[in-house]
Every structure is written in structure tokens, then in C-alpha cells.
Amino acid sequence: MSTETNLWHLENFNLLKALSLMEKMKMAKKIKDRLLKKNEYIFFPEDPSSSIFFLKKGRVKIGTYSDDGKEIIKTILDPGEIFGEMSLVGEGKRKDFAMALDNDVTICAMNMTDMEEMMENNSRLGMKVTKLIGFRLQKTERRLESLIFKDARTRIVDFIIDMGNEKGKAIGKEILVKHNLTHMDIANLTATSRQTVTTILNELKEKDLIHLERNKFLIRDINALK
User: Fold this and answer.
1) What's the pLDDT score for residue 146?
2) What CATH number did the domain enclosing 63 receive?
3) Exposed site from 25, 33, 43, 68, fewest CB < 10 Å?
């Protein structure tokens, strides 16, 4: 892919808004593009943690495996997000896996040392990356506490609230959330079953707390869900 095309893609990453045009052009020359098929792995646990990735198109899931081999999904990423960022804080080997969830997933990779150099030369970028890592660690900690201390219904409701806060668009008192998640995806992310997710979502719909449509839902009043 050309440097000009890479530059256009980089303009769509909020994390990189701190970079000047010249810095983005320099970055565009250093990234390498990769096209993936559905269910193709980007990296595995124990792989060297030497690159940071930018998701241009499609969805990617990040997860790990339990001791008994069960897949545990940590998050599902949409275009415009970065991943593999733990390489920037001393992670020598990957602890998670990353897998394409769709066909024609497009990512670009940048060597960790090149990214570190850019962060050293741009304090705003360094601060944004630090905040991103901190936010994701906090989110993982909250999710772990939720799995330990909360029941299935509460975990699903908390997931909806988090989606509203992170990806929702306010329409008066209501919040519109666009997504590409199936009920099975939500079940995996909340450690519940698909049937439980369907039951709880229908219950919330009947109480007029949410309105469901394909690939989106409307939260009527987020405070009423809490």
C-alpha cells in the first residue's frame, strides 16, 4: 500500500491526532500492511512482543487461554483502534492472542522501537499512549472483579452501560450504540451463555430500558440501567 494511502488511514486514528503532518508522513513510511482472513491469528501467546498494530478495517478479538485450554475473550476491537500496546511497557512475550473476526481485516504494524522513538519526540503522543494503556488495564481489572463478584444479569447490564459510555452517541437522554456483536460475542465477553444474553436483552427491551435493532441498540436512560 502506498505511503499516501497509509497516511490517509493514519488520519482516522484518534490516538495519532497529536502528531503533526510531517510526523504522520514519517510514520506512514515505517508501517507495514497486512490483510487477514476470518479466524486468522495475528499473534499468539508467547510470540515476541515487538510490534504495535493499528486496525484499519474489520474487527479483531483479543483473548487468552485458561489452563484447561478454554478461550477467554478480553475485548473486541473496531477500526481506528490500536493493539499490542503492552510491548511498549516491557512485555517481552505476548500474553494474549489476536485474531481476525471478519474477512479482509486490514491492519498495519509498526516496530516497537520506531513507536518508542515517536513517543520520545512527541510528549502528547506519549501521554495518550500511557492513558490508553492505563484505561485498558483498569477495564480488565473491572471485568475481573465483575466475573468474581457479580451475577450474569449484572455483568450483561454493566457491559451495555460500558458500551454506552465508551462508544455511544447521545441523543437527548438516550444513547445510541452501533456495534457488530452477536449475542454469542456478548456472551463470551461477559462469561455467560448466548441464551442468557438473549433472555436478559429481551427482558430489558420489555421494560423499555433499551431498544434493539440489528447491529445497534438504544439505551433509553442509562441511569435507569444502573
Assistant:
1) 84
2) 2.60.120.10
3) 68
